[in-house]
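DM from R.C. (forwarded with permission)

"hey, sorry to bug you on a friday — could you get me a structure for this? deadline for the figure draft is monday and I only need the backbone to look sensible"
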Amino acid sequence: MARHQLDARRLLCPMPVIRTQNRVAELQAGDVLEVTCTDPGALNDIPAWCRINGHKVLGSRREGNEVIIEVEVGDGA
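My reply, with the result:
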C-alpha cells in the first residue's frame, strides 16, 4: 500500500472527479489517494464515483475552503 496525493484545487465539476479517476487508474489496489479540492461538490461527487467504481472513501474533511477526501483504490482499478 502506498499513499499518493492529488491537487484538484481551483477545478470545478466535473474535473475533480475526472482527475481522481485518471490518477486512480495509475495506482494499485489498496493504495490510498488523498484528493484536495476547492469545489465543495466534490464531497458528494467523489464518494458517488467511488461507490459506482468499487473504491472506498476512508474519510473526508474540510480545512478552510478546501475539501480533502481519502480514497482507497479497489480491485477494479
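R.C.: lifesaver. The mean pLDDT is 96.
me: no worries. The helical segments are 15-24, 42-53.
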